Amino acid sequence: MADMKAVGVVHENRGSVDKFVSKLIPKPGPPQERDILLRIKAASVNPIDIKVRAGRYDDAPDYYDRCPKPFQVCGYDIAGIVEAVGSSVTRFRPGDEVFGLCSPIRNGSNAEYALVHEGALTAKPRTLDFVQAASMPLAYMTAYESLVDRMEIKKGEKAALLIINGAGGKMIHCETPRSLFGVRDKFAHIVGSVIGVGSMASQIAREVLDLPVVISTASRPETQDFCRAMGATHVINHREDLQAQIDDLKLDVPLKYIYITYNTDMYIETCGKICAPFGKVCSIVQGQARMYGTEFMAKSMAFIWCYLGTKLYYGVDTESYAKILSELADMVDEGKVKCTLKQTMKLDLNGLRKAHEAIEAGGTIGKIGLEVPEDETAFA
Prior knowledge:
This protein is an alpha/beta fold and about 375 residues long. Helices cover about 25% and strands about 25% of the residues. It has helices at about 45-55, 65, 130-135, 135-150, 195-210, 220-230, 240-250, 265-275, 310-315, 320-335, 350-360, and strands spanning about 5-10, 20-25, 35-45, 70, 75-85, 95-100, 115, 120-125, 160-165, 170, 170-175, 185-190, 215, 235, 255-260, 280-285, 300-305, 340-345, 365, 365-370. α6 links the parallel β13 and β14 (about 235). α4 packs across α5 and α4 packs across α10.
């Protein structure tokens, strides 16, 4: 069996970025049925990558029982060239340029090759290069599934949407009494899975759903400007009183929808105060979400989780991914949706470590892309 170069982490030795290792691992075998063997040209980094690497991924309680062992390749956004297709693949052939999403329970895109289900890929946008394309799937699809599928916002609805933390990611460093792998350590807990999600949500709300009011929260001048550039009609400061700022806007439509992309538990009580009766709150950030004593019951509000990995994790309705990706590609090529790639690093051991460190440091705006080098330094 042929080998390939990859960067990943040994299952029993997860932790900080220095746990990443570059090594030769078996190249995925010939694709079966609806799998596609992809030669990877680019990837990008998301908060899930950091949590998986560190042994802190908690969105699925049995994740570390189902993930690849003894060596796991992270990376969920992917763009590349079709190398081979399974016998049941109908939409692609070798040589096609595609982009999409890797499964959370298979080896990912931080390698030379990956097996990806046909339903999680579509043709790469013509107007984007591979790195730009690889920066979009997870963020866009998370936002789309949250707003369109989970909250069921109707196109043209006369309502307002509030996006909490609409520009970038942030980390909280704290002490934990135990590790999933038996080591007590200080770790960076990601409370906002928002590297690009908030900005994609703004664009979807305006360009896909045609909402009249989209409010984003941001605290720095540069992140406030970024939110406006991504389509927010109003920007307020999440470091100040949200209720007072919402009141000051004197909206002429009800605030029916709130999208939490940062620290669910910090905002639950506030959401109950500012959301309209019968409104909906959706979060992509794990937490306790304790609503007792808030206004959720009195207002008959709905609280909704959104985990993009659900369909691939449980093998349910995976074909919907391709539909969303195809719509994304069309809107990008038509100039309706903007790519939020802000930094590009080399997809090798050093580049991957630097990208993870940048996200863990906090304050990241937009996405960090990873480009596969064409020379012999690839994955060194």
